[in-house]
């Protein structure tokens, strides 16, 4: 799956990694629903860090379509709330 990290570029994330990313996505959703800014920051950081860890960066000149777009680390809780779909940021 090609993932775009807004402001950073694209990474190729193996399908086998999606389960762990979905767990982190669920934690992020819970933090947003509760309005807990501290938990939101920690959950967003954990999700983005994990994507960076398991993903393989694509060349900067790559034109691959992104299947998933994740917000930047400094995104506001309301911005991320607006990005959430029925299945969170990362579909099951």
TrEMBL record:
Q: What is this protein called?
A: PspA-associated domain-containing protein
According to its UniProt record, what is one Pfam family this protein matches?
PspAA
The record lists the organism as Actinomadura darangshiensis
Q: Which InterPro entries match?
A: PspA-assoc_dom
Question: Which residue ranges does the record assign to the PspA-associated domain?
Answer: 1-92
């Amino acid at each position: 799956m090609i993932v775009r990290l807004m402001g950073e570029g694209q990474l190729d994330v193996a399908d086998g990694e999606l389960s762990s990313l979905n767990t982190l996505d669920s934690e992020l959703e819970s933090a947003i629903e509760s309005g807990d800014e501290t938990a939101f920051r920690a959950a967003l950081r954990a999700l983005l860090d994990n994507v960076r860890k398991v993903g393989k960066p694509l060349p900067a000149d790559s034109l691959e379509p992104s299947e998933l777009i994740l917000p930047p680390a400094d995104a506001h809780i309301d911005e991320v709330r607006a990005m959430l779909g029925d299945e969170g940021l990362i579909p099951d």
